[in-house]
Amino acid sequence: MKKGAWFFLGFLLIVLMTACGGEESSAANPADTVTVEASNWAFDKEEYRATSGDVTIELKNSDGYHGITIDGTDVKIDGEGTSTVSLEKGKYTINCSIPCGEGHGEMTAQLIVE
Ligand SMILES: [Cu+2]
């Protein structure tokens, strides 16, 4: 009887662990966050990468006041903030959306969604 109870507990533990593992793999595609840091007059990277699906874009201003738009999407962030968008695989261009000064025209970057 006692032996049976231990066996049952062990079995339960294995089932629970397997269930947890399964849950993790079903959430294999969690929302990706891309952090873009803008300064005068550049983004911190020329190329950002994300996984297709829901992507949260986060904009930070480390110097000056900038915003972003991403061509072909509804993403528009003025100053600082986040925006979540569903993206298909492809290459997107990020532009500064605020006329921020002499280097404004050069404030572009690529977002590569895989
Ligand atoms: Cu600008």
Tell me what portion of residues adopts beta-strand conformation.
35-45%
Give the proportion of residues in helices.
10-25%
Order of strands, widest sheet: 3-9-8-5-6
Q: Order of SSEs, N→C?
A: HEEEEEEEEE
What general form does the structure show? Answer: elongated
Provide a count of the helices. 1
Give the overall pLDDT as a whole number: 88
Bound molecules: copper (II) ion
Q: Evaluate the radius of gyration.
A: 22 Å
What is the terminal separation in angstroms? 55 Å
Low-confidence runs of at least 5 consecutive residues: 22-28
Number of strands: 9
Main beta sheet:
5 strands, mixed
| Class from secondary-structure proportions | alpha+beta
